[in-house]
Amino acid sequence: MKQSVVALMALAAGALISSLADKAAAEEWNAFSSSARVAYLADLSSISVLGDDTSINVARVALPATPGDYSHKVNEYAIRCATNQSRIVVYIEYGPDGAELDRYPETDVVWDTPAPNSLGALIKSIACDSVRAQGENAASIKAYIDGQAG
Fold first, then answer.
1. Residue pair 148/64 in contact by the 8 Å Cβ criterion
2. Residue 101 in this model has a pLDDT that exceeds 80
């Protein structure tokens, strides 16, 4: 009986860990701004709060999208919602196959106040005020590019 309980608990713990890993790996890209040359997408699943800082990942995808080219760039922003300050923490570059090419930590960037009606102000409103663009979210950057190119 004791072995059965221990085995059941181990199975339940494994299922919980697997479920949490799946949730952590899930992405939800919301295309919130675009021009003829670039689209900006916020990964809503990346929004997290630690102390006074809220972080969010924002991708830039070149337009028009080219089928099979998954090149894009991602900035991780840190935002202080209460004081309306933000900064880029890391800049990540992805190649045509969608794999990470390089990562550039932004260690010396000072906190800045986004100008009203700017891209930075919009990113802050997504991260801090739950503002969302209309339309369907993409499960990945690849899915977004495939949807634009197809």
1. yes
2. yes
Report yes or no on 106 lying in a domain.
Answer: yes
Q: How many domains does the chain have?
A: 1
Q: Is residue 112 part of a domain?
A: yes
Cβ neighbours of residue 57 closer than 8 Å, sequence gap 6 or more: 42, 43, 46, 74, 75, 76, 77
The answer to whether the pTM exceeds 0.85 is no
Q: Indicate which CATH number applies to the domain containing 118.
A: 2.40.128.710
Q: What φ, ψ does residue 38 adopt, rounded to 5°?
A: -150, 145
- Residue 58 belongs to domain spanning: 27-149
d(CA 76, CA 97): 21
Place of tokens 């100008």: 115
Cα-Cα-Cα-Cα dihedral sign, residues 136, 139, 145, 150:
negative
pLDDT digits (tens, 9 = 90+) for 16-69: 444 444 444 699 999 999 999 999 999 999 999 999 999 999 999 999 999 899
